[in-house]
């Protein structure tokens, strides 16, 4: 790839009619002059060719290895179901191509570690879709805290909703925690990553990962499927970032919530306050957030405009699912051009959440409906290890009639 040329992208999972690639990756890439879409890949050759025609892309594949090996592809984007991430990611790495994989990176920690190790050995740039780190509002809040706007952070609260994992679920594979696509890894992973990006990693924490249903109906058909994934997540602990050393943090993701507060992040310091709130019912990382602030004797929070320096994409790009994806691509382009590591990379995925987060405590059966969830053991980790290892996953069984 010449230094002056565009980065040519092959997208695994680029359906013509559905999927995250169609609403986020493709419009994001089309908005950025640094990139061009060179190839698409789907499970069948006929659907790949249909997608290529739909998007005006020259190359179509049903085999991710062949896409990765093609000389006209510099970067492989993987945007398929989590259980299917491993094969195309490894194919890209083995072909010596840079790779952007959607979050969660893999089904479990072992897969994520293997992908990270392979990418590091091959020397390719690797990025994972933790787009909250690219949010202008999140980065603005991070800098305000670091610059001392609220003084010393005393406490913070983040709450979010996951409409899935409630009375119904829209995809059966997300009911099985072995697939790695759960409330804890998807919604929980995105949001707790944004929290730690602002305030630093947890020094100590206690957490509950709770399942209140052991069966759940599919949204489209009503078919009942077994559910082993948690539908509630609570984390309480102490963080240790700049101006937030020792701050007390409460974090909660509520499964099945379709009303009420979609997202709220409050930061309280000894000199001021910041809040970040949702502007739509979309996930936190798939929308613009509103920043409000107050200091001193002020009794009300006032909206604070986000400076343009936190926006790295062309003006006019819609602030929906595509926006922070485009922000991440813009950052990745700079890393590819400069030969420097991308962030968030696969290393961020390895440290954030692990499959060990949801292992039950040995010798302790699931609680009844009237029982209580077991917390993880209070623990300490160095700043780079704020996953939820050791957290005890419990089932609070109930009927799903």
CATH class descriptor of the largest domain: Alpha Beta
- Taking the alpha carbons of the first and last residues, their distance comes to 57 Å
Please give the largest β-sheet: 10 strands, mixed
**Oligomeric assembly:** single chain
CATH architecture of the largest domain: 2-Layer Sandwich
Structural class comes to alpha/beta
- In CATH, the homologous superfamily of the largest domain goes by the name Dihydrodipicolinate Reductase, domain 2
As a percent range, the share of helical residues equals: 25-40%
Given as residue ranges, the uncertain stretches (5+ residues, pLDDT < 50) are 354-390, 395-401
**Mean pLDDT value:** 89
Radius of gyration: 21 Å
Outline type? globular
The number of helical segments is 9
Total discrete domains:
2
What order do the helices and strands come in, and which of them pair?
Blueprint: E1 7-12, H1 20-31, E2 35-41, H2 45-55, E3 59-61, H3 64-69, E4 75-78, H4 86-94, E5 98-101, H5 109-122, E6 126-128, H6 136-146, E7 153-162, H7 184-199, E8 202-211, E9 215-217, E10 224-226, E11 232-239, E12 248-255, E13 263-269, E14 272-278, E15 289-295, E16 302-303, H8 321-338, H9 346-352, E17 379-380, E18 393-395
Parallel strand pairs: 1-2, 1-4, 2-3, 4-5, 5-6, 7-12, 8-18
Antiparallel strand pairs: 7-13, 8-11, 8-17, 9-10, 11-12, 13-14, 14-15, 15-16
Helix pairs in contact: 1-8, 4-5, 5-9, 6-7
């Amino acid at each position: 790839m010449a230094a002056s040329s565009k980065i040519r992208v092959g997208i695994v999972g680029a359906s013509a009619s559905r999927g995250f690639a169609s609403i986020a990756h493709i419009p994001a890439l089309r908005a950025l002059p640094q990139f061009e879409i060179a190839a698409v890949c789907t499970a069948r050759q006929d659907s790949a060719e249909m997608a290529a025609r739909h998007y005006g892309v020259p190359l179509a594949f049903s085999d991710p290895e062949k896409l990765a090996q093609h000389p006209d592809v510099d970067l492989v984007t993987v945007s398929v179901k989590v259980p299917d991430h491993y094969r195309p990611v490894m194919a890209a790495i083995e072909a010596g191509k840079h790779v952007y994989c959607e979050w969660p990176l893999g089904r479990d920690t072992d897969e994520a570690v293997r992908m990270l190790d392979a990418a590091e050995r091959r020397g390719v740039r690797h990025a994972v879709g933790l787009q909250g780190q690219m949010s202008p509002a999140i980065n603005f809040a991070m800098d305000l805290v670091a610059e001392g706007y609220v003084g010393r952070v005393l406490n913070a609260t983040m709450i979010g909703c996951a409409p899935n994992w409630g009375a119904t679920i829209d995809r059966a594979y997300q009911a099985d925690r072995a697939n790695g696509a759960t409330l804890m890894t998807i919604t929980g992973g995105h949001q707790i990553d944004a929290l730690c990006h602002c305030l630093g990693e947890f020094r100590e924490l206690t957490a509950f990962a709770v399942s209140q249903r052991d069966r759940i109906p599919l949204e489209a058909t009503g078919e009942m499927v077994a559910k082993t994934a948690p539908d509630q997540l609570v984390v309480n602990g102490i963080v240790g970032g700049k101006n937030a050393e020792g701050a007390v943090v409460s974090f909660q993701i509520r499964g099945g919530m379709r009303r009420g507060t979609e997202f709220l992040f409050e930061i309280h310091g000894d000199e001021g306050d910041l809040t970040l709130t949702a502007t739509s019912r979309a996930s936190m990382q798939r929308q613009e957030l509103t920043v409000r602030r107050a200091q001193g004797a002020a009794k009300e929070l006032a909206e604070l405009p986000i400076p343009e320096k936190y926006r790295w994409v062309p003006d006019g790009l819609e602030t929906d699912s595509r926006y922070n994806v485009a922000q991440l691509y813009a950052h990745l382009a700079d890393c590819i051009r400069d030969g420097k590591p991308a962030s968030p990379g696969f290393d961020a995925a390895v440290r954030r959440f692990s499959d060990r987060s949801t292992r039950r405590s040995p010798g302790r059966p699931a609680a009844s409906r009237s029982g209580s969830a077991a917390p993880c053991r209070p623990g300490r980790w160095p700043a780079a290890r704020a996953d939820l290892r050791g957290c005890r996953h419990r089932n609070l069984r109930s009927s799903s009639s």
